[in-house]
Structures are given as C-alpha cells and as structure tokens.
Amino acid sequence: MKSMMALLILAAPLMAAAADNPDASFYKNAAEGGLFEVDAGNLAEQKGNTQAIKDFGAMMVTDHSAANDKLKALAASKNISLPTSASVGQIATKAKLDMLSGDTFDKSYIKSQVKAHRETVVLFKKEIASGQDPDAKAFATATLPTIRAHLKKIKAIAADEGVTIK
To answer: Is 54 in a helix, a strand, or coil?
Structure first.
C-alpha cells in the first residue's frame, strides 16, 4: 500500500501537467511520431537499397528534426514534458527494419512510412478540428501540409518500386 501511495505521489505532478493542457495527448503522440521518423529516416539513409529510399530517409530526418524542435519549444513554453523516445510500437517497427536489408528493407520501410504518415495526418486533422490549445492547433495547421507531402512522396515511391499498399 505504501508503495502504491508513493507511486501516486510521484506521478501526481505528471498527471497534473497533462490535465492542465487538454491537448497533452496530441503533444505526446506528435513527439513520439517525430522521433520515430528521424530514427527510421537515419536507418533508411544507411540501409536503403535505392537512392529514392535514401533520399526520402534524409528528407524525414531534416523535416521531422525541424518539426520536433518547434514542438519541443512550444511544449517547453507550456511546461509540457515530451517523451524522449518513440512509442513501443514504433520502436518495434524500427527494430524489425533494423534486421532487414536490400529490397526487403525498402518494401517494409515504404509500408511503415505510408502507415505512419496516414496515422499522423489523422492525428493532426483531429487536433486542427477539435484541439483546444490554440498553439497546438497552429502547429498542426502549419505542419500538416508537409506531412501530406511526405505521404504523397512515399506513395509515389511505392508505385515506382512496385510495392502494394493498402
């Protein structure tokens, strides 16, 4: 019982910070996604079998690093703590990609990028439509066109590489 109470006491400041901002889950999910994109992009630059994959990976590192920096600054101005790593599912996806090579890597990377960018478009559209933090909504509004451009680009790469996406 004492350990449960101690855990609650230690967690209370974190819960309070999240409760203070109704858009805290957007910040968390956007940060995790951005971190995943940079990690996976670095991997694509190293392991990509085609120049298109290497170039797309480099674009992910550049664009998502910039967005991550903007999100960090915004969250810091609101005393919101952001995660320092991708989500468990995203880490598992990267671990899977890490074990692949050649065409198999490229195909898996393409599919993971289509899935990730589709999910991110949904997340950002939801924030724009129903978010309560005007700064988070502005960040989502400013960043969504880049995310859509990434999705369009990775779908074009999929078509060029003959990768079927659902």
So the answer is: helix
